[in-house]
Fold this sequence. Notes:
Blueprint: H1 2-25, E1 47-59, E2 63-72, E3 84-86, E4 89-93, E5 97-111, E6 115-127, E7 131-140, E8 147-173, E9 176-199, E10 205-230, E11 233-254, E12 261-283
Amino acid sequence: xMKFTSVSAxxxxxxxxxxxxxxxxxxxxxxxxxxxxxxxxxxxxxxxxVGLNAGGTFGASxxxxxxxxxxxxxxxxxxxxxxxxxxxxxxTSNNNSGFIGGGQIGxxxxxxxxxxxxxxxxxxxxxxxxxxxxxxxxxxxxxxxxTFATFGTRSSRLDYLGTVRGRLGWLFTPTLxxxxxxxxxxxxxxxxxxxxxxxxxxxxxxVGGTTFADTRVGWxxxxxxxxxFMPNWSAKVEYLYYDLGTVSASGASIEPVVGDWGFSxxxxxxxxxxxxxxxxxxxxNWGSAPVVAKx
Length: 295
């Protein structure tokens, strides 16, 4: 009987061992942990930036016109009771061109992954863009037939140019931005002219001129491409058109010998043009929203 009991115990132990091994080989019914994707990368364009730019500026319509007219002293025995002078040159284009360079500061906000809005302010000095022309005009006294001639020079110059613009862009790729831009433009402009008016055949002359120098405010619009070629660094190529409006300057003089006639001159100059430039920006990424990962 003891022998039978020992055998039964051994068989039972063997069965339990085999059952445990079989259970270990069966597939587990416990669910695998859920896959959690990695957090999205932060928007690389959002934040503040500063940079430098350089390029060229070219005059657009930029025309200059001059009108000169005069009157005689009513008691003049030579010229009668009145006379008129109109020596006007046709408008000419300044075609001013030169080097432009300066710096910019701005802020971008990237949204919906592929869109960007921002604001940028810049200021540039302009070199080598002054333009000068010679002009000439003539007319006759309608009462005596005396001929008057006016000749001289005039010049215009853009000394500096700044803008404050909004930007709206689309990311063609995560690192390549295509954008349009527009807003306020301001610049320091100056015009100068000097003229001599003479009575031909008599030799009496009058010397005069005009001058203007001030800051003008207008508008600008354009677009460009910007490439984030390294973390925090981008390069851009940009085109802008600017228009600072028309400047009018007037001057007058009296013939110094006899003093019986004088003339007045008005010069009008349009300041507008094109800018093509390249720039380099460093992005601080200040103000970008932090990315919070959920696990």
